[in-house]
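ok so I'm stuck.
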Amino acid sequence: MGWSSTVPAAIGALVTAFRTAPGLEGVPVRDGPAVENQAAREVIAVGYAGDDDDLAVESETSPEGLGREPDRERYSIRCAAAVLRGATDVAAARSRAYELVAAAGEAIARDRTLGGAVMRAGVSTTSLQQSQTDRGVQVMVTFSVDCDAFTRR
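replied:
not stuck anymore, here's the structure
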């Protein structure tokens, strides 16, 4: 096999880690822009892109060493934890969204190699969005999982 990126394996490993993580029981984990279960009140999305211009993954690859050695690959996988409450209590929804992010971060910390897909992974940046909707308060914490890996050869 020729050159290949570790991004698909890392995304798959994150989905699996989040689906089996303590603290995320019963929370739907979406792989990318899935549309199933739109009625979910809580959700984690891996490879999240909110708008058409958003990137699910941003990556940089550079040569590592001489010859046919694998390239070094560094990338950020964008994820989101969203909570929709039928009430207007922003503080409770915000707390719960950050609990979901904490559980996701703990799942990554248990195996920073994501099952061998990468050399190291960890939560880096987070962003908070909160709004009142006709269905109640909606809070979303987007977070990036930074990965450092060698490409496959």
